[in-house]
Amino acid sequence: MIEGRSPCATVNIPDYGILFIELLTRRSGEVGGEKWEWLPFTPMNKEHGGDPPAVDFHGRVYIVGCGECVNKMEMLDAAAGSQ
């Protein structure tokens, strides 16, 4: 069962799937909730404080810190599967 998580941000990555920062993902082409899973992209889960702004730009997801973490930013290359 999927457990509740907050705060989080959501990004739809074309040809890849949906990414929730605090990170719940579902791959494209998978229907229903059976294939949703939490993935540990450390330190994205803890380093951004508050509700992290996130955006997909050319297949890369940028997560920007807020509040006292405003100087932090990470990039996830969805195609390469790396941070």
Question: Any chance you could write out the topology, listing elements then pairs?
Answer:
Blueprint: E1 9-13, E2 17-21, E3 24-27, E4 37-38, E5 54-57, E6 60-64, E7 73-77
Antiparallel strand pairs: 1-2, 2-3, 3-4, 5-6, 6-7
- Give the tally of β-strands: 7
Low-confidence blocks of residues: none
Shape: globular
The biggest beta sheet is recorded as:
4 strands, antiparallel
Beta fraction: 35-45%
Mean pLDDT: 64
* Secondary-structure element series: EEEEEEE
Span between termini: 27 Å
Indicate how many domains the architecture comprises: 1
Fraction of residues in helix: under 10%
Structural class: mainly beta
- Overall radius of gyration: 12 Å
Q: Please give the order of strands in the largest beta sheet.
A: 1-2-3-4
- Tally of separate helices: 0
Protein name: F-box/kelch-repeat protein
How would you sum up this structure, described in words?
This is F-box/kelch-repeat protein. It comes from Hymenolepis diminuta (Rat tapeworm). The chain is mainly beta and 83 residues long. It has one domain (9-77). It is 0% helix and 36% strand. It has no helices and 7 strands. The protein has a 4-stranded antiparallel β-sheet, with no helix packed on it. A 3-stranded antiparallel β-sheet has the order 5-6-7, with no helix packed on it. The chain is globular. The N and C termini lie far apart (27 Å). 13% of the residues are buried.
